[in-house]
């Protein structure tokens, strides 16, 4: 679908790619990189500005608001084939479904976003994992190996002359395992079947390495990205010792491949309070937090002041302040001015923007963000 932007792109003196790289490497930049993380599904059915302009998803919204362009490229790093999506039972207000990760779950019929009630996982014991691994995590699965035609298409889509930053996706070493086992299931498995969990982590690492080996030689990537989501408001759902002994060594293998081709910026998407494992992330080569939830990690200034230029942050705009209206929005954004000016920090909503943020307040937020961070220097 063709999207007509509702506002002009911020003025610029450099390309989006140069700006991103300079800002995230603490070098002088023309103005702040302008991006957002996206929106809850409900926003697309509730915000008038989206309804009236046919904006149905986050990709459309990025073009609609004329944000700077940023792209991520990858190949399969998780189970294949997945379990598909099957409705098992219809109830009065909910459905029982099997999701692509193999979980039986109860979800609301009205489609509003909520954490599902998980009933049963497909993987509980080592025997379960052995079967699923053989069927869905094969390194020799043809779907995991790019054909020459696929590679050529990717090169055409992302040429060396591109003017936007391009990242390579480094998958998930424990977050998707949590999705497959459930929160409780992973907590128990780390103690009941530690060897099984470590084999899962090793398998995920090998799948990421396979993807990197196929893509790194053919593109000049600007950064690496990943997804973990293993923290909540009280810290990580696995122990720090487990993270140090099982996850960190695999991260370091991935980091070595990235740095061998000059990629020295790596973020992973992790919500909640990452502070207990942040030193281990930095040791592993992950040097950027995304989206840096304020109510888990505190104001981004606290972390940036503590870790200095070893750390970068993308996100860090408190979504709860966006819901409080113009005065709170402006006050919070003004608190970020020193962080943007020093570099290594790109501000945007610290998760998908929720529907309790009024659309007029969100548009005000975009205006103030441009006034404070979008002026040429």
Descriptive report:
The protein has 377 residues and is an alpha/beta fold. The chain has two domains: 16-80 and 122-373, Alpha-Beta Barrel (TIM Barrel); 84-121, no CATH class. 43% of the residues lie in helices and 14% in strands. A seven-stranded parallel β-sheet has the order 1-6-7-10-11-12-13, sandwiched between helices. A four-stranded antiparallel β-sheet has the order 2-3-4-5, with no helix packed on it. It is globular, with a radius of gyration of 21 Å.
Could you provide a short overview of the structure?
The protein is α/β, with parallel strands linked by helices and 377 residues long.
Descriptive tags:
377 residues, alpha/beta, TIM Barrel, 2 domains, seven-stranded parallel beta sheet, four-stranded antiparallel beta sheet, 17 helices
- Put simply, the count of helices is 17
Low-confidence stretches: none
For the CA atoms, what is the radius of gyration?
21 Å
| CATH-defined architecture of the largest domain | Alpha-Beta Barrel
Largest sheet properties: 7 strands, parallel
Task: Give the ordered list of helices and strands.
Answer: HHHHEEEEEHHEHHHEEEHEHEHHEHHHEH
Roughly what percent helix?
A: 40-55%
Q: Provide the structure class.
A: alpha/beta
Number of E-state strands: 13
| Proportion of residues in extended strands | 5-15%
